[in-house]
Structures are given as structure tokens and as C-alpha cells.
Amino acid sequence: MANEKVEFQVYNSMTRQKEVFIPKEPGKVKMYVCGVTSYDYSHIGHARAYVAFDLLYRYLKYLGYEVVYVRNFTDVDDKIIRRANELGEDPTALSGRYCQEFLKDMDDLQCLQPTHQPRVTEHMEQIKEMIAKIMANGCAYTINGDVYFSVDSFPEYGRLSGRKLEDNRAGERVEVDSRKKNPADFALWKSAKPGEPSWESPWGPGRPGWHIECSAMSAHYLTHSFDIHGGGMDLTFPHHENEIAQSCAACRESNISYWMHNGFVNIDDEKMSKSLGNFFTIREVTRLYHPLALRYFLLGNHYRSPVNYSISQIEIASESVFYIYQTLLDSEEALSAFQQGTETAKNAKGRVTPQAQECINKLRNELKTKLCDDLHTPTILNAALQEALKLMNSCLTILKKKQQKQQHLSASLSLTELLKEVKAVLDVLGLLAGSTCAEVLQQFKERALKRAELTEEDVLHAIEERALARKNKDFARSDQIRTDLAAKGISLMDITGTTETAWRPCVRSIQEQPAAPAQPKKSAAAVQEQPVAPSQQKQPSAAPQQEHPAAAPAQQDHPTVPPQ
After folding, report:
1. Is the dihedral of CA 143, 149, 152, 153 positive or negative?
2. 425 in helix, strand or coil?
3. 362: part of which helix (H) or strand (E)?
4. φ/ψ of residue 72, rounded to 5
5. Which of 25, 344, 410, 466 is 20 to 30 A distant from 211 in Cα terms?
6. Measured distance CA(125)–CA(74) in Å, rounded
7. What is the distance in angstroms between the CA of the first residue and the CA of the last residue of the chain?
8. In sequence order, what E strands does 426-475 have?
9. Alpha-carbon distance 510 to 312, whole Å?
């Protein structure tokens, strides 16, 4: 742990306030996060949840805790059975396939693997044992092979969501059953139906209800008393409310210290909804934008706040991450060239400049204080990190110029320490890729070409055509080439001191971004081919430009027209 003591505070949905985090067992944390129902590709709402709790997982480990992180798969459910029937596929095979697709999405988003990822179908014995305990304690009843939890048996029902019992409605995944004693009673076990997967039980063949699985699996891996239970705000009721009731009914000592919930995702200021046809899968987004851009976009908003997804926002996030990795690459290459000088600086009079040391201390302090304040990431990304990147580019400028040896040594050593600190921060945030910086930048460029519907050969041909137009003093034509490419998200960069021109991705102009309303989601098999095309909102300001890029942005060529 860091030497300076900063109390870690999290917002507890149960008490509706921020609280100092105190684990039940010193130095160890047990956390459970509700996973996906694996019947389709995961959407950006799932990305929002699992990036948020991956950040929590990473930060707890950074603070020195030994963390047991459990995230489940619901691999038997009405939705899975319905989708399997539509596709003429075995429900178990379909669910298993989408479990693997989910894991690929999580890997792309740099979410660390949880300690355990249990599946419902592999924990039927634990589920049946818990139901039996609930019945033995007089909190459930059977009707023709179905087992229902009696909410009237649990007086504290509603304490998490704040709902009164008389206002509650039945679980969202089942229709109201007139046989129930109370309309709010929910299924613990569902009797078998023809053609559906089923397991033998004391109440007859059937399968679990939705809520019981998480209670049983969390208790199996973490015991009935653990530190953190997380999920999206939409799970507060009925899912988490029901979990509390049935867990306490099975074991009176059941206790979870902190309930944490992430906010919703909106699409162009409208709540994301399958019924509105305005939701997008992770795969749809990462086909056109780097997964790091999506992660950066999500971390740019506090995890409990609503996040508004739009093309302009994801493009700005993409621009920001490209800027980060270009700065990292430029720094690595410059330091490699000055490697001998860096070693000399350590053994001679070279030292980190006071400005660089202050920046390093600020970045390190901001990481601790902001993440300790209920994982407040926006300030880190938008302030402290940007200041460090700007100073790194200033160091690069010094190394490029003819300076006294002492200035070069200080700039080199300062850049070394800044690079190390920035990478450490990116690692905690899950933004440090396993690939090289050059490889990451190339991946960004490939997606930019895909968005522009161009090949690299197309861009290089346009660069050659522009160079010829400039040579012939046809400035109107050269300006148009540059403008047309910029509108498609391709920025031309004239390399300083040469006649060469390079290119990099940039934020597209609003008129060039897809503006057609999203179409309702098609079949799961076709989901990867659907374009990411929500309508546009007013574009916010772009990410900061690199202070020391390898090439300067191409300027307007016509001498009578001022640069834009």
C-alpha cells in the first residue's frame, strides 16, 4: 500500500451514502458481481457495469488487498430457451457459445478475469440446498412443483430499493401467477415444461428461478457474509432485493457490507432500450472503435452517473487514447535514442526537474485521492493525466532541440520518470494495453480506415495527389483533398523539416458522421454486422492535441485563405 493513508470510500446503495470501506477481514476483500444471461452478444450497458467493477477490482488490488472476485453466468433462463428455440439450437450449446463471446468482449475491454466465474448449470446442488433451507425455515411454499418465496415472511423486504411491500410488483422475468399468496412472491424453482432443460429436485423436475442462483453461488464461494455485492442500478429491484430476502431466509447471519450499483447508459440522451431499438452491442462498437476508446469513454464518467453514448463522444474518446499512446511511443523512442544519456544522468548531475517532480507527485496523489473518493475517474483523465502528457511532450521538445547537455539530461530523466508514472496510472485504470504502443496505434488507424471506408492505399494516393497539387500551386485542390479526408476522420500531418506527409485518425465532422436512427436489433447471428449509428448531439470540444507530435497538422494550402 501507499505510505500516505487515504481512506477509501464507496457509495453504499443500502445506506444511500458514501462510507469508509472496512473489509470484514483485514487485508482481504470478497466481492460478487451479477453476470450476464448468456443468450446474445453483450451490449454497452454490460460494458459499463463490468468496466466499473473491473476498476474496483484493480484498485482494491492496487491498495494491497487480497481480493476474491466472483462474477457468474446465468446459463439457463427463459430468454436462453426462447432464443434457442428460435434458432433451433440446444439451449446449453447456445448459452455456452455466448459465454465465450462475452469473455472475448471482456478481454478486449481489458477487464481482468475474476477469481471465479460460476455457471448456474454447474451449481444445481447448491441451489437446491439453499431452497430446501428456505422452505425449512418457513419462508417458501410449493404449488404443483413450483416453489415460491413468501415476501410476507421477510418484514425487511424493500429496504434496499426503498419500496413498500404493497407497492411492489412481481419479478420482471415472469408473468404474475394467480396461484401465489402475494403477487410479489417470486419463484425459487420452476417445474419442468416440455422441451425445456430440467433437473431432478425434491419438488419434482425443474430449474431454478432467476434470483436464487446468485444467492447460492455467492454463498458457496464467499460464504453468507462478505464485503461487496455489485451490479447495474436496474438490478436493485427486483433482483438484489430478492437476493437479500432469500439469503437471509436461508441463513439469518447473511450479511453484505456494501451494495454498489453503476448507472444507466443513454443513447443520445435517451435511455438505452431493446424495445426502442437504440442499443448497441460491445462488438458493434469495437468493430469501428478500439476497445480502449470504449473503456476510456466509460471511465470518463463517474460509474454511478448516467452516461450518454453518442458517436461524437466515442470519437473524442478515441482521439484522446490515440494521443496518449502517441505520446507514449514518442517518449519510448526518444528515450531509447538517449539511453546512454539517461544512464549518465543517473551517475552525474542530471536530475528530474522540479516541474516534472511536482507533476509526478500530483498525478500520484490524484490517483489515490480521486479513486478513494468512490472511484472518481473523470478528474484523473481530464486533468492530472493531461497535465502529465503535456509535460512529457515539452520534454520531447527539449530533446529535439539543440540544448546544453545538462538540459538534455534533465529532460531525459524527467521524461523517464513521467513515462513510468503515467504507465502506472494507466495500468490501474485498465488502459495500459498488453501490445506495444506502435501496435495499439496501428489498431486505431485500421479502425479509422474502416470508419472512413478507405484503404491505406486510398489515403496514400490522396497524399500523393495533394503533394502534386501543391507542387503545381493548385491550392484549392490540395485544400479540398485535406478537407475531404478530415471530414472522414483522417488528418494529414506534414512532417516538420521534410516534404513528407503522414496521417492519423481524427474526430470526424458532424455532417460526415452517420445520422440515421438505429435500426431494431436483428438476430444474434447478424449482430456483428450492424453499424453503430445513433443520431448526433452537439459535439463537445475535442481532446487536447499533442504538444510534440511526430508531424504537424497539415495547414490550409491556399495562401489567401487563413488556416483553420
Report:
1. positive
2. helix
3. helix 354-372
4. -90, 170
5. 25
6. 15
7. 49
8. none
9. 8
CA-based nearest residue to 549, from 338, 327, 391: 327
Neighbours of 529 (CB within 10 A): 10
Q: How buried is residue 225: exposed, middle or buried, by Cβ count under 10 Å (0-12/13-18/19+)?
A: middle
| Lookup result for grid cell 453483450 | 42
What nine digits make up the cell of 543? 481532446
User: Residues 41-70: pLDDT tens digits?
Assistant: 999 999 999 999 999 999 999 999 999 999
The dihedral sign for the CA sequence 542, 547, 549, 555: positive
- The residue assigned the cell 417470486 is 186
- State the Cα angle at 57 between 308 and 118, rounded to 5°: 95
| Chain mean pLDDT for the chain | 88
Q: Is 492 helix (H, G, I), strand (E, B) or coil?
A: strand
Q: Give the containing element (helix H, strand E) for 287.
A: helix 282-288
Sheet holding 140-143, edge to edge: 140-143, 146-149, 186-191, 206-208
518 vs 159, which has greater pLDDT?
159
- What are the backbone angles phi and psi of residue 481, rounded to the nearest 5°? -60, -45
Q: What letters, b where the CB count within 10 A reaches 16 and e where it falls short, cover 112-133?
A: eebeebbbbbebbebbbebbbe
CA 499 to each of CA 34, 550, 561: distance values in angstroms, whole numbers, following the listed order:
56, 14, 21
